[in-house]
Amino acid sequence: MNSDAVKSNPTTPDPGTLKPGTLKPETPRNSHGPAATGITSTPEWRALSDDATSLRNTSLRKLFSDDPHRTGTLTLDVGDLHIDVSKNIVTASTIRKLCDVAQAAGVLERRDAMFRGDRINTTEDRSVLHTALRLPRSETLIVDGVDITEEVHAVLDRMADFADKVRSGQFRGATGERITTVVNIGIGGSDLGPAMVSQALRHYSDAGIDSHFVSNIDPADLVSTLANLDPARTLFIIASKTFGTLETLSNAEVARQWVIDTLATDPETQKSVVAHHFVAVSTNIERVTDFGIDEANIFGFWDWVGGRYSVGSAIGLSVMLQIGPVHFREFLHGMHQVDHHFRTAPLEANAPIVLGMLGVLYTHFFGAETRAVLPYSNDLARFPAYLQQLTMESNGKSVTLDGSAVQTGTGEIYWGEPGTNGQHAFFQLLHQGTRLVPCDFIGFAKPTADLHNDAGASMHDLLMSNFFAQTHVLAFGKNAEEIRAEDTPESLVPHKVMPGNRPSTTILAPALTPQVLGQLIALYEHQVFVQGTVWSINPFDQWGVELGKTQAQALLPLLTSGAPGASTVDGSTSDLLARYRKWRGR
Ligand code: F6P
């Protein structure tokens, strides 16, 4: 073997020498604007920056060999979650520096303000109290003279009462049939949370209730869902915080007509049919009653619950119907456990702070643009999509709290697919591509389903062996020498080198229970908060989605008639609209 040939080949990386800095520019790629202000001008940030410079010149192989106790010190435990951060490109000292930055940015004060109910969502002048949704009944939280806990539990009790009646068959459809199907109509936070949880906890369905979720204004969504349903056995939950969302109202109107057309014998029975087959979850009682749903069939929540933080509110009604009130309360308890941890754990043991700050580290000092979330559980297939709204609608901002332009990069781009499917799709890029993509691997010791192959191997064990293998290979790779030792033809050596030094966090839990799922959700919610605070942005508004909505309304007449407002449309859009009309035969 001609090792010189390989040595002189600049494309041959080696795990021992490849540094994250060789994947990305040395200077933070996301640094916006010339002047460093805010957090980036603090001594804590400078200390972190110095640390990051030396980290870019080391490798995970070296970090592991330098510190045999590394794994012991770089793990976190919260609730049932065991979180191993040792395969991140950090030392214990980096974690300290990350925590110093969090503290300097005011994460602790702002966290306390959030839990207290201060109006930290300044652009909407609202409190941010999704954590109050999971407070135990025994804890009091008074905000503006109102006992929030009492209100929360009053709604939870009504939900439980209703869920018990539906699940037991006491509440029936208009023709006396048992309700066996629930269709949640909602979008964004009024869909992604319950849809994700419903799938994740499908093995807790114990009352013969099947759940469906319709969100898209594309009629294909509703049509394909209704195709196999029996209206007499179907309950619709119209879930919308504002009850003003076009997609939801359009789908709800069609669903209402579908039920009336089949079940209402004359106009007089319409009201009663709607009462037997429609309930709503909203903060806007007036709009819901205008729609024709009786006040008795409305489950309320509050403006201090952001849509993407609302799965623990009445927005989770479809989940409660499916898994029952007891399991739903376990789910809330899991969230509360992480809330408590976030509130009380010392900085360096505080999982949301450490994980959120790792995202800050990679964003600013390693040029990472994205974070892959890779659940090794098919039941968590919708978790990455859920996190996309949670994290990207929250932290996709470029203006700070005082209205000035941010001086740092913000919101990580979240994406992912369940393992092992992702391995056969995009893992090639994770292992050998030129981009650094920090990954969160989420796995469970106990399966929700297991089968054994011909050789008697447990399929869950096979799944999890892939889970453990991937984080190992990402971190440590395989160098040219090791590949040559396998008698690999020299020409193939550079292609087979696995650079390693690619960071991952492993989150391992005993099983995917309601409680564990609640813990996972709150773990990510609070990371968003930590990052938003460090970046000095407001994670709780979403002004960026409004213009597209109004623009769509304004364009609608141009799709149908091509008439008014055409002059306000740019040339490209105007041309596309003309083609659309032509192909639509207009
Ligand atoms: O368009 C974004 C958004 O406002 C999300 O923040 C929200 O979760 C979703 O729309 C649905 O809103 P609503 O629950 O009011 O229908």
UniProtKB/TrEMBL annotation:
Transmembrane segments: none
GO cellular component: cytosol
Gene: pgi
Region (Disordered): 1-41
A GO MF label: carbohydrate derivative binding
Protein name as catalogued: Glucose-6-phosphate isomerase
InterPro entries with a match to the protein in the record: G6P_Isomerase, G6P_Isomerase_C, Phosphoglucose_isomerase_CS, SIS_dom_sf, SIS_PGI_1, SIS_PGI_2
Pathway: Carbohydrate degradation; glycolysis; D-glyceraldehyde 3-phosphate and glycerone phosphate from D-glucose: step 2/4; Carbohydrate biosynthesis; gluconeogenesis
